[in-house]
Design goal:
It is built from 6 helices and 12 strands. By secondary structure, it is α/β, with parallel strands linked by helices. It has an 8-stranded mixed β-sheet. The chain has a two-stranded antiparallel sheet with strand order 5-9. The protein has a two-stranded antiparallel ribbon with strand order 6-8. Helix 2 packs across helix 3.
Length: about 250
């Protein structure tokens, strides 16, 4: 592979794409995708569930993200196992990696941690408080915008913090909400990518989940968006800038 032309300023060199791994036919990366594109990063969208292959190396990508889905990281499906095993590629190469909800659970499972349903069948569906740990406060100090106080959730399973990882944020029914592994690998239980259109679609197509213990009524989701989304959006932009910069620094 030819070496990059270091004489060209990084600001004008073409950006490598970010690998986006989705799990349903019509899923999108939502606001995360828009934020990446606004920063000049193309999206390489793949759906292993429907036969798309995963790259053997991260050399051609600026980072990788595994998004959520209705399946479990404990499921025996071939694509679930393949995605979970593939996370090792990003970790070994110290490439930026972000797991969102299911993706975070896959990261935890790859590292040997437990992924589990709540013992009383409770779910987090709606907006819930987020509390930073000491490690989270240290990480937050490096960002241009702080972590939000409340975030949008849609899950019935949680995960333990793996050995060797740092727990950045905690919650209520599912205590581990964000982890960091190494320099640039993160897992978050919540959904910063969600838009009002996505929220409308989720609460319509999966409305039966709103009856689960702990889930919030539909109107509370939209009320929460108006109350909390500005802080989430500000944090997301700052987080992505820092996350992508780690990759640029690592590969410089």
């Amino acid at each position: 592979m030819p070496k990059p032309d270091r004489s060209t300023p990084a600001s004008v060199r073409p950006r490598k794409p970010v690998l986006i791994i989705l799990h349903q036919e019509h899923s999108t990366p939502g606001r995360v995708g828009r934020f990446l594109q606004a920063r000049g990063y193309p999206l390489d969208v793949r759906r292993p569930r429907f036969g798309d292959p995963l790259p053997q190396t991260m050399q051609g990508h600026a980072g990788a993200m595994i998004f959520g889905g209705p399946m479990s990281a404990n499921d025996p499906d071939d694509f679930v196992r393949a995605e979970t095993d593939w996370i090792g590629t990003a970790l070994r190469e110290e490439a930026p990696f972000l797991g969102i909800c299911l993706g975070a659970q896959m990261l935890a499972r790859y590292l040997g941690a437990r992924v589990y349903p709540h013992e009383h069948g409770r779910a987090e569906i709606g907006y819930y408080p987020l509390a930073l740990t000491d490690a989270g406060h240290r990480a937050s100090g490096q960002l241009a915008s702080p972590w939000p106080d409340a975030v949008y959730q849609w899950h019935r399973e949680g995960f333990d913090c793996p050995a060797g990882a740092a727990c950045l944020a905690t919650g209520g029914d599912f205590p581990v909400q964000a982890i960091k592994v190494g320099l640039a690998a993160f897992g978050i239980q919540f959904h910063p990518e969600v838009t009002p259109a996505m929220m409308y679609r989720w609460t319509t197509r999966a409305h039966e989940r709103l009856a689960l213990p702990g889930a919030q009524p539909r109107e509370a989701h939209f009320e929460g968006w108006f109350r909390h989304d500005g802080a989430v959006a500000n944090w997301l932009g700052a987080f992505l800038d820092d996350w992508l910069a780690k990759g640029e620094l690592q590969r410089a």
